[in-house]
Amino acid sequence: MLYLIGLGLNVDGISTYGLEVAKRCKTVYLENYTVNFPYSEGELKAVIGKKVISADREFVEGLKIVDEASKKDVALLIYGSPLTATTHISILQEAKRCGVKCKVIYSASILDAVAGTGLQLYKFGKIASMPKWDKEKKFEPDSFMKIVLENSSIHAHSLILIDIGLDFQDALNQLEKASENNKIKLKKLLVCQTLGTKNSKIFYKEINDLRGYTGVRKPYCIIIPSKLHFVEKEFLKDFE
After folding, report:
1. CA distances, 222 to each of 1, 3, 86, 143 (Å)
2. Given pLDDT bands bounded at 50, 70 and 90, which one contains residue 166?
């Protein structure tokens, strides 16, 4: 049987049930390519109490894990909640196609934690992802700003998830250039770092004021607020 187990946002974020299942599985993998972990693999292994094998994109997307789970109990640990990435949905589809039993054990994700900004969750629109640009290869996609435009047209807030390995100041540069390309005027932004951990911080600043924040920890996300309710405005004052 294959278990997709959410780790939550902190090293202790895995549920009691998820931890129990991981401990009894014959093999435990850790998906390592969708997020910058706010803790070390060593700290996680200490919580799990057994060997954890780091699994890269090639291994997970190759779906060998499904074949392995047809012979024994296998766990794939995933930061946050298990089904926020399309790769993990593909695992479920492959398991179903191959007749391999699969169980998802959910946990908290960034989609829960952004409520800590005071922005109302039902007022968020489509989620956007900012990839890491490569100027040498002329890889500078800005389609994530098209989603921001679409959200703003219905007065919805935009959550932008940041690609693994992308430093904060580089992300700001990309955001600014992408907004110029799409004729979007940026006002105040919300930056949320390592939500759900002891190092959690939220900043609500103009983009130029954020230039001085060189110590923003990964993982972080950026929110472009749209039309604010008066309750949201009041709550955001604490982060200015």
Report:
1. 37, 31, 21, 16
2. very high
**Within a 10 A sphere around the Cβ of 180, how many other Cβ atoms?**
13
User: Is residue 60 pLDDT above 80, yes or no?
Assistant: yes
Residue 132: domain span: 111-239
Q: Are 126 and 157 in contact (CB under 8 A)?
A: no
Q: Kindly report the CATH number assigned to the domain that includes residue 12.
A: 3.40.1010.10
pLDDT digits (tens, 9 = 90+) for 66-94: 999 999 999 999 999 999 877 799 999 99
Single out the residue in 108, 141, 156 at which a domain terminates. 108
Domain tally for the chain?
A: 2
Instruction: Please give the sequence-ordered ranges of beta strands (E in DSSP) within the chain, or none if there are none.
Output: 2-6, 27-31, 53-55, 74-78, 102-105, 128-130, 158-162, 188-193, 201-206, 220-224
- In angstroms, the CA 240 to CA 43 distance is 33
Both tokens of residue 25?
A: 């599985």
Task: List pLDDT tens digits, range 193-220.
Answer: 999 999 999 999 999 999 888 889 999 9
State residue 138's pLDDT score.
Answer: 87
User: Where does a domain end: 78, 108, 138?
Assistant: 108
In this structure, the number of other CB atoms found within 10 A of the CB of residue 102 comes to 19
Residue 198 is encoded by which pair of tokens?
Answer: 């002891």
The DSSP code sequence of 3-58 is EEEE-BSSTT-S-HHHHHHHHHSSEEEEE-SSS--SS-HHHHHHHHTS--EEE-HH
**68 and 82 in a common domain:** yes
